[in-house]
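Summary of Year 1 activities. Much of the first year was spent building the evaluation harness for sequence design. The harness presents a backbone, in tokenized form, and records the residue chosen at every position. We chose the following record to illustrate the format because it has been used consistently in internal testing since the harness was completed.
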């Protein structure tokens, strides 16, 4: 039996704006992982996927349209092994629909397990590309940040590639007035000629500790992402300005990380939360946890991921960590995780 795994992820700052070409910073959570195990099956059995946590199982040949089936078939085709008699079992400790990249982690673990079985070393960039195609099945215009940070498993600066299909103002209303709207897309597209994503490692000047508070509210990524797209289509100039403000604070956050300036980083996380509230992707549960963390001494706090539920993060020091953790639980966090980035 071969077992492979992949980590959960956190977006430190820049979510949503990253869909529209601005930068974002993401971190892997090495201790929280998804696993995929491959076992040989009888000749002619084909490939069977078992989603152990969900109690469901299916034959890929009979259900080729399911996103994980598509990913398995695409991976086998890439590996030059179009047929495989295997049982592939998936398990995950990552809460689903919580902004922690559970889908990307499961997909990455699946593709890694098949590559290990085939005896092929898949480079992170190739792995990420395979999983990106499958992420597109879950929400139409993913930036690609989840699959990238999960496959590379390191803190990254990410800007999506121009070849990836980003939202356009034509997505919904082809008849909408062209005045100003589509020019927004053209203006940004001509600003850079990069076709594939820009992925750079992030320098960390001093270790920093983040607490992750889960609201316990599950939220499918595509819903807030779709809501932001509709608002952007209705008021492109307003939303472009908010995306620009997020992009600018992400650039400052990179400097704060490199210099170990956690006070500045905390303020930037707070600014990012305000802008995410203006995008309309926060929620009362998220804001309760964010306020509790700040009141208990966190240097900054914000939602992380798509929003409307899922998790928030708080930047703490060794001194403030116990009080912030207790405050998050008292404010209703269903679980609190800690991660140190160094
Ligand atoms: O799927 P989540 O909750 O980790 O959020 C993904 C981050 C977004 O920026 C909201 C969407 C994207 O594709 O980048």
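For this record, the design step produced the sequence shown next.
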């Amino acid at each position: 039996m071969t077992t492979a795994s992949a980590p959960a992820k956190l977006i430190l700052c820049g979510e949503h704006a990253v869909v529209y070409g601005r930068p974002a910073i993401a971190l892997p959570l090495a201790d929280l992982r998804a696993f995929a195990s491959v076992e040989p099956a009888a000749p002619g059995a084909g490939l069977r996927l078992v989603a152990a946590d969900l109690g469901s199982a299916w034959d890929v040949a009979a259900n080729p349209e399911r996103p994980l089936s598509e990913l398995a078939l695409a991976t086998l085709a890439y590996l030059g092994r179009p047929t495989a008699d295997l049982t592939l079992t998936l398990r995950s400790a990552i809460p689903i629909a919580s902004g922690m990249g559970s889908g990307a982690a499961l997909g990455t673990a699946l593709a890694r397990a098949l590559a290990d079985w085939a005896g092929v070393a898949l480079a992170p960039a190739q792995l990420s590309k395979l999983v990106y195609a499958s992420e597109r099945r879950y929400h139409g215009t993913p930036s690609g940040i989840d699959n990238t940070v999960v496959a590379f498993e390191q803190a990254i600066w990410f800007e999506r590639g121009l070849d990836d299909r980003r939202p356009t103002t034509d997505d919904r209303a082809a008849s909408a007035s062209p005045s100003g709207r589509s020019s927004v897309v053209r203006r940004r597209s001509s600003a850079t000629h990069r076709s594939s994503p820009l992925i750079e490692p992030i320098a960390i000047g001093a270790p920093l500790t983040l607490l992750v508070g889960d609201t316990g509210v599950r939220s499918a990524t595509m819903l807030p992402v779709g809501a932001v797209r509709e608002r952007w289509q209705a008021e492109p100039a307003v939303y472009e300005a908010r995306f620009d403000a997020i992009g600018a604070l992400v650039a400052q956050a990179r400097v704060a990380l490199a210099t170990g300036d956690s006070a500045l980083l905390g303020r930037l996380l707070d600014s990012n939360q305000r802008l995410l509230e203006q995008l309309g992707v926060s929620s009362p549960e998220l804001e309760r946890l964010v306020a509790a963390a700040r009141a208990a001494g966190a240097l900054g706090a914000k939602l992380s991921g798509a929003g409307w539920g899922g998790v928030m993060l708080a930047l703490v020091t060794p001194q403030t960590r116990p009080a912030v953790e207790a405050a998050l639980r008292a404010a209703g966090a269903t679980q609190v995780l800690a991660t140190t980035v160094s």
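The radius of gyration is 20 Å. Quantitative recovery figures across the full test set are reported in Table 2.
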